[in-house]
């Protein structure tokens, strides 16, 4: 048990480091491609790699009941959360997106309290949340003057919805233990979400011919696939399967 807990903390450390860098990569990717399209390509490639790896090893696809559960997780954590956050970076900087995402611990605690009858609020929990929230508000204060800009405001709203969806998805996923290998479930989540996002892109016209994108955009997507998804997202799902969601959410700080 201690070994599993130690691995979970290492996974949390990987998440905290690599996801801090993905805001920069996502911002670069959205300079030549729509944000939703970048997110869809990222998830489709990441999911295909992981699912393909497990299928080649002889694993079988799970039943509809498990796939439905994984789809719900993928919708909240990837389609809505990651998709909207990447879209938001067409209008706001990666730094501001990271600041808004720092509200995750607050929302995770709130959703935990709403969804769990046995959850308790401690004094230190309240102090930590208040200090963290005040820190976010203090940093965001410098951006208030830009709120009159419609595009900027739209980006902020997208980032807030993304943060809410990610927080709910985190609590939901922590309560759902998949009956299959964790990394296989991660791959299926990403693959399903990637297909959904690209389908939405096709309907809304938020896509471009990938061959027209420059080298910097593809390098950004490569970084997002390898370090943002295959490494960090896999580590995140592993961490929340072993540690309390409220603890794992501190990666946002």
Offer a concise description of the structure.
The chain is mostly helical. The protein has helices spanning 2-29, 35-56, 64-88, 94-101, 104-115, 123-140, 150-175, 182-204, 215-242, 245-248.
Overall radius of gyration: 18 Å
Mean pLDDT across residues: 86
The shape is globular
Structural class: mainly alpha
Query: What share of residues are in beta strands?
Result: under 5%
Unreliable segments of 5+ consecutive residues: none
Number of continuous helical runs: 10
Record the SSE blueprint.
Blueprint: H1 2-29, H2 35-56, H3 64-88, H4 94-101, H5 104-115, H6 123-140, H7 150-175, H8 182-204, H9 215-242, H10 245-248
List keywords for this structure.
0% strand, 77% helix, mainly alpha, globular, 253 residues, 10 helices
Description:
The chain is an all-alpha fold and 253 residues long. The protein is built from ten helices and no strands. The chain has helices spanning 2-29, 35-56, 64-88, 94-101, 104-115, 123-140, 150-175, 182-204, 215-242, 245-248. Helix 2 (35-56) packs antiparallel against helix 3, helix 2 (35-56) packs across helix 9 (215-242) and helix 3 (64-88) crosses helix 8. The protein is globular and about 50 Å long.
């Amino acid at each position: 048990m201690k070994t599993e807990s130690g691995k979970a903390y290492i996974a949390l450390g990987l998440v905290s480091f690599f996801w801090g860098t993905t805001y920069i990569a996502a911002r670069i990717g959205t300079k030549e491609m729509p944000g939703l399209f970048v997110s869809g390509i990222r998830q489709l490639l990441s999911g295909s790699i992981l699912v393909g790896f497990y299928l080649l090893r002889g694993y079988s696809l799970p039943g509809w009941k498990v796939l439905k559960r994984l789809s719900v997780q993928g919708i909240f954590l990837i389609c809505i959360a990651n998709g909207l956050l990447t879209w938001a970076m067409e209008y706001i900087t990666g730094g501001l997106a990271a600041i808004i995402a720092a509200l995750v611990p607050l929302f995770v605690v709130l959703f935990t309290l709403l969804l769990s009858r046995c959850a308790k609020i401690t004094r230190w929990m309240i102090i930590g949340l208040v200090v963290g929230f005040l820190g976010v508000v203090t940093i965001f204060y410098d951006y208030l003057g830009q709120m009159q800009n419609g595009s900027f405001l739209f980006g902020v709203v997208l980032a807030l919805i993304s943060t809410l969806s990610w927080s709910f998805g985190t609590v939901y996923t922590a309560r759902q233990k998949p009956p299959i290998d964790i990394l296989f479930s991660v791959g299926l989540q990403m693959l399903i979400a990637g297909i959904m996002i690209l389908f939405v892109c096709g309907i809304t016209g938020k896509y471009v011919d990938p061959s027209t994108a420059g080298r910097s955009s593809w390098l950004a997507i490569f970084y997002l696939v390898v370090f943002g998804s295959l490494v960090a997202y896999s580590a995140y799902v592993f961490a929340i399967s072993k540690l309390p969601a409220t603890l794992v959410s501190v990666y946002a700080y």
